[in-house]
Amino acid sequence: MERRRDKPVVGLDIGSTKICTLITSDKDGELQPVGFAKVGSKGLRMGAIVDLKETIKAIQQSVAEAELMAGVEIDDVFVGLGGPHIRSFNSEGAIPLATPSREITREDIRHVIENARAVALAPDREILHIIAQEFVVDDQPGIDDPLDMVGTRLKVNVHIVTSAVTAAQNVVTAVHRSGLEVADTVLEPIAAAEAVISDDERELGCVLVDIGGATTSLAIYHHGAVRHSGVLPVGSDHLTNDIAVGLHTRIPEAERLKREFGCVKAAMAGDGVTFEFSGAGARRPQETSQRVLSEILQPRAEEIIHFVRDEIRNAGYERQCGAGVVLTGGGALQTGIPELAEDLLRLPVRLGGSARFDERYDEPGFATVVGLVAYGDRRRKSDAFHEQSGSAIKRMIGRLRSAVF
Ligand SMILES: Nc1ncnc2c1ncn2[C@@H]1O[C@H](COP(=O)(O)OP(=O)(O)OP(=O)(O)O)[C@@H](O)[C@H]1O
Ligand SMILES: [Mg+2]
Fold it and tell me: pTM here?
């Protein structure tokens, strides 16, 4: 029988503008990309599937191209999940141990996690992740693994991510009908963070902001764990739309102008830079300047960044993000975005490509798919290790600290 570790680890990022498949294989313990495809996404609106048939077709095309390149057939994938239906909150679980104190067992840890999981959810919501932030034994906080420690009371602080049952189910159904199994579903900004954020940044405090086509999603890290996550219903396609409306041009032309001449910070725009474009219905090419384009783009870019600022503020992490902001997603490539974000957030901002593989995968727009395989690889390795050592509960904590169980 094929060992689980030898199976290719595959990430599938079903974005609102593109569907990426990344197939990796394990070479001497190191993950190597062997197949990759990016195809235009169809059937999604606002990060949610609205046309199952079209989405399945696009997934199949993306997977087939990556399989052809890799020369292997895949059967299960780690899938990203996003969309404004995502909600997150922090919670806790606690159990009494004994008076006087006693050693904490695996069963206690399982029990306290189950306790944290017992939150009241509306019937149309389900838990996507429960991520342990820390354990507390009696009054001692900040414990990663409380096994064998002595106490009278055990507590765990967790970050819980929930999704709409139907939206998550549609993604799983689309993957199944494409002929694949779902190894796991992962919140997209958590996957992206896996690819581009260092342990030091996680410890010191930072924000991963993924500016996609239809959505902007974020995850806040502090003391090594996720503290807040969210998905906002505005993305870089809104900038394209604003150009189409503002300059009376069609969407593909607006998209070209955005990428070639767009700068979201008017003060950075070249005063004398002018260019031609085809206006909708106009017979002759029109002319405008980069400054005019910036005046269209800046308010929308500010709206996106203000959303992010409010999320950070409302989560209470304004002063705890010393390592700053890491931008991913295709929208992060927009000229002026890092500068505008620095101005408005008053935090250092950098672009997040992943140095995990070679430069072909080092694009902010590929962070989610690279993160999905990084997550999947770690997950498989820890499963294999703990299966060997027979320690189910260690596995549970391992998954918890990093992401899921
Ligand atoms: N060089 C560029 N300059 C400006 N914008 C860009 C550039 N490259 C890509 N974009 C924009 O990035 C967006 C797509 O980003 P990305 O591929 O991360 O989205 P997605 O994952 O498909 O969407 P979502 O995460 O919202 O589901 C598009 O709006 C596109 O116009
Ligand atoms: Mg995306």
Answer: 0.93
